[in-house]
Fold this sequence. Notes:
35% of the residues lie in helices and 20% in strands. The chain is an alpha+beta fold and 465 residues long. A seven-stranded antiparallel β-sheet has the order 15-12-14-13-17-18-16, with helices on both faces. A five-stranded antiparallel β-sheet has the order 5-6-10-8-9. A hairpin with a 4-residue loop joins strand 8 and strand 9 (177-180). The radius of gyration is 23 Å and the shape is globular. The two termini are 20 Å apart.
Amino acid sequence: MSLPDKVLNALAEVVGSGKLLTDEESLVHYGRDWSRLYEPAPSAIIFPKSAEEVQSIVKLANEYKFGLVPSGGRTGLSAGAVAAHGEVVVAFDYMNEILDFNASERSVRCQPGVVTEQLQNFAQEQNLFYPVDFASSGSSQLGGNISTNAGGIKVIRYGLTRDWVSGLKVVTGSGALLDLNKGLIKNATGLDLRHLFIGAEGSLGFIVEATMQLARQPKNLTAMVLGVPEFEALMQVLHTFQEAIDLTAFEFFSEKAVQLVTEHTGVARAFGTAAPYYALLEFELLNSDMEDQIMGLFETCVEAGYVLDGVMSQSIQQLHNLWRLREGISETLAPFTPYKNDISVTVSKVPAFLAEVDAVVAQHYPDFEIVWFGHIGDGNLHLNILKPAEMAAPQFFEHCKQVSDWIFKLVQKYEGSISAEHGVGLIKKHALGYSRSDMEIECMRQIKKVFDPNNVVNPGKLFDV
């Protein structure tokens, strides 16, 4: 589907010269995200510079009945930012300013195109800390983070993006501009509409400004990597350390992941002993007494048989190197055309759930290699199935869809989520019922109709209207 010239001309009048693109290269670049299961086919890419321009774009979409797809850094993996049916992509690259900082409130007002790392660096310049962090922080944008309620590596201590949003300005699917919560920490005046837009994947409207809270900077961050003999031991390690200290991260990854990362990046192993699984713990090392306490916890885990070997960072560089073992996994796996699943259950159910998933895949596809990693401290597991070199990609993905259906049934059995942090988008829309009841999904449809009665904002994503 392509739009008539009169519609394209009307859009161009809204944003001005050079801010509406229709060339093939731009359509492909801005019409997709990091997922590659759908071919991008937008009609145009438009770059608003203000909330008022976003309103005008939305009103044109309602008038001429065409769809709009919000676009940030396009780092998503669920096809939530894919324009596959002639929609107009609304890209926020030119709405990328930090507008205001309030030191006493520890808050900062941002436009949606602010890159996550940009906000992290700004916070650091104020001797503060923005704690939501993940591998794509150098390219993901704040509006996208909010729309997917992004998590990342520090959720165990700091929570999700939702926990740091104290105010939102949004343009709804009908073109109304709403100023939600206005940065208040306490506000007991009925329904908090701000939270409907957080995690809605752009299905209700466009985020055009966000007030974000900041935290104090952590002191002397230190990491340990521990090799463990079996998955259940990871949970024992988590319990042992979490009972005694506040962790800022607790990640896990498999020996296969370590092998691939060290081969691909050249980063050294944490230590010589190979183990089936590894835990990466991060914490603030505040004094020498705490260091003694940490070593005591480590020795307790070794004596109990939970840990085979381990190392603790002694410098900033070593801290970064240890993290590289974990954060280099996605980049390393890309050439293997992995089929990814981002799933979660409550922490106590993780061992039994993972064992059942492993058994299902091993039984039906014994030749498929599996690489596990994830944010195990909050129950989030990333399952990556690697494509055999001799198998064609379409055949591989068709097999993996069947694997996913089995896995999603296990997710339902364990009352978990089919998408812990990557969203639903197009790719997992068919499976939403494994995590949400029919009544919940119907409520979501009704809420969308309130904010977007003509279904112009990210149509077809998350659920069908």
